[in-house]
Write a structure and sequence with these properties.
The protein has 156 residues and is of the alpha+beta class. 18% of the residues lie in helices and 45% in strands. The protein starts with a helix and ends in a 7-residue tail after the last strand. The longest helix is centred in the first third of the chain and has 18 residues, at 3-20.
């Protein structure tokens, strides 16, 4: 057999195997309560939440560094309000635009307030004798993400 024939035979067999594969995924949930119970039953979950003007993909026990949050102290517990998506390995549920805080509860604990690395900006104007060095460290807050809880509603 020529090499082009072998390549054609392999690609045809791969196509046949790919088309014969059967999906083992379970049926899709009928409503949001069923979707939350399916996500709750999975071994690991994640959320996409907005914090300090940005979206973050978060899992339990993650350590998150965000720009400095004012009016919080080390040890304070923050409840994340803007949760856009919640999911697990097999299922995902997206909000429109956010998921109600009564459906998903995620808490973050303030671990520390810290500063970033030293940033040096050097300014100069040619032939004028003007030179200026600006040094800066941006302040950050570090948060430890707690567990993701799905309260069971009595009337879904």
């Amino acid at each position: 057999m020529a090499s082009w024939q072998i390549r054609g035979w392999l690609s045809n067999n791969l196509r046949r195997v790919a088309s014969c594969s059967v999906s083992t995924q379970a049926a899709l949930p009928k409503n949001t309560s069923a979707a939350f119970s399916l996500i709750r039953s999975q071994p690991s979950q994640y959320v996409v939440a907005s914090l300090a003007g940005r979206k973050y993909l978060l899992a339990p026990r993650d350590l998150l560094t965000v720009p400095h949050l004012k009016d919080v102290r080390v040890g304070d517990v923050l409840a994340l309000q803007d949760i856009h998506e919640v999911g697990s390995r097999d299922y995902t549920l997206r909000g429109d635009p956010v998921i109600s805080p009564s459906r998903v509860k995620v808490e973050a604990t303030v671990v520390e307030h810290t500063k970033g690395k030293m940033e040096v900006v050097f300014k100069k104007k040619r032939r004028k004798g003007y030179q200026k060095t600006i040094k800066n460290k941006h302040p950050y807050t570090r948060l430890r993400i707690g567990s993701i809880e799905f309260p069971v509603l009595s009337n879904p």
